[in-house]
Amino acid sequence: MTIAEQFRITKEFQVKDANAKKKPLGTAGDDKDGGKAADKLATLKLAEEISDLQNVLYAGHERKLLIILQGMDTSGKDGTVKGVFGQINPLGARTVAFKAPSNDEKNHDYLWRIHKEVPGKGEVTIFNRSHYEDVLITRVHEWIDQAECKRRYAQIRDFERMLAETGTVILKFFLHISKAEQKARLEERLADPEKHWKFDTQDLVERKYWDAYQEAYEEALLATDADHAPWYAVPSDSKTQRNLVIASIVQEKLLSLKLKYPPGNPEYSKLKVE
Amino acid sequence: MTIAEQFRITKEFQVKDANAKKKPLGTAGDDKDGGKAADKLATLKLAEEISDLQNVLYAGHERKLLIILQGMDTSGKDGTVKGVFGQINPLGARTVAFKAPSNDEKNHDYLWRIHKEVPGKGEVTIFNRSHYEDVLITRVHEWIDQAECKRRYAQIRDFERMLAETGTVILKFFLHISKAEQKARLEERLADPEKHWKFDTQDLVERKYWDAYQEAYEEALLATDADHAPWYAVPSDSKTQRNLVIASIVQEKLLSLKLKYPPGNPEYSKLKVE
């Protein structure tokens, strides 16, 4: 079983706190720090391999890689970007954080600002939040009704299929934390003035809707999982295991593409540099 | 004398091969590899510091940093991005490579596509080539005449002053290689089929205009150097010294900004996470 298969959601997928706490890729049990150092080392090695593979992807100028990160506040989307993709050459790789839509964005369909940012040939693009917010926060607060939500699932499936059919590899990660872990992380932010800039009182408001969010995630993921756009549920109470799982799946996928540098041009060997 | 002062161009600035070959930040002379390993280690340390400083810049959401990289083909613009900015968090940092303008871009003034990509608050943006191509390649091939070129120098000065006045720190690097070094690097690319994708026969055409380019660079840099948008001439025949010089100047500049995390919100200490 590949690591990707191990974390791909199934039809029985449920968002339950117990699943957020798992340390599924547990390293040598005799580590005094709970395996953190070993996780980090393994992740760094994978991050470097991802960086090398991205270089070939870039050179090939053919395939496109889209990574989607979703999760509750404090689930570690920024930390994943840094830990898993921090070694990647900024040339050819890009992160896009989608915040509340601007007025101009609201004047368009919800996929408009997303489509503008999808990767081009040879590019890796990481979405920190995405069009999935348009079936999550909007659903939880009942800005859209159930019928509209279902229409959007179908639209998202169609959109992602089109992207896949036109050469985009899509990997979607649900960073799954438990309610208790979010509490601890929010308290940590509140306790440290240097982390206040990351804090938004709105986070506490959204936290009140915890159960509704869990339900919305469960439904959205099940409705939009597909072989060409799979969802991976990543236990994320442990930050180091989270990064290790995601790095493993990305590296595995890139390896499976059997990327090669484009063939050399035989004519070039005849060229002289004056 | 700061490192920045050491490399800032003066009124006597000349583009001469001899200047490209210097190893001005030479490390311990007893290194058997010409100091390469020591250069790399020092650069990595600086790159990590730059990454930490960028995090504070991002948190502060106030200052903007624009890095412009210019230089002849093979001068190492991509290598600089990877070596100096490879440790930076992709969140809040972006590289933009400007190629030959598209039809839509040609329908606008030459600063239009540039302005769209300048950093926002808290952002670091690295330009791999820039609006300077519009006074270099265009001048060398006489697509614009001397009067138009001078008009553009003034427009560029005005544009960059506006960016600086609205909170952008600008650092401009001329990656200076000698003609012999370019020959060696082009031959290396031609010899290795895995590097053919980086090669363009147009590179050999441009190389024939070497002297005209040197003249155009000299004039453009002198015409657009300013305290708020300084040009640094970086000897770049040595890749490791090039990265070390650029990393030093960027780190020095970021330190000088005395960036601080935004003040904590005293109200936050009263908040309870339920």
From TrEMBL, chains A, B:
Entries under InterPro entries matching the protein: P-loop_NTPase (IPR027417), Polyphosphate_phosphotransfera (IPR016898), PPK2-rel_1 (IPR022300), PPK2-related (IPR022488)
Example of a GO biological process term: polyphosphate metabolic process
Residue intervals of the Polyphosphate kinase-2-related domain: 37-253
Pfam families xref list: PPK2
Keywords from the UniProt entry: Kinase, Transferase
Molecular function (Gene Ontology), one example: polyphosphate kinase activity
Gene3D superfamilies linked: P-loop containing nucleotide triphosphate hydrolases
Family: Belongs to the polyphosphate kinase 2 (PPK2) family. Class I subfamily.
Protein name: PPK2 family polyphosphate:nucleotide phosphotransferase
Organism in which the protein naturally occurs: Undibacterium pigrum
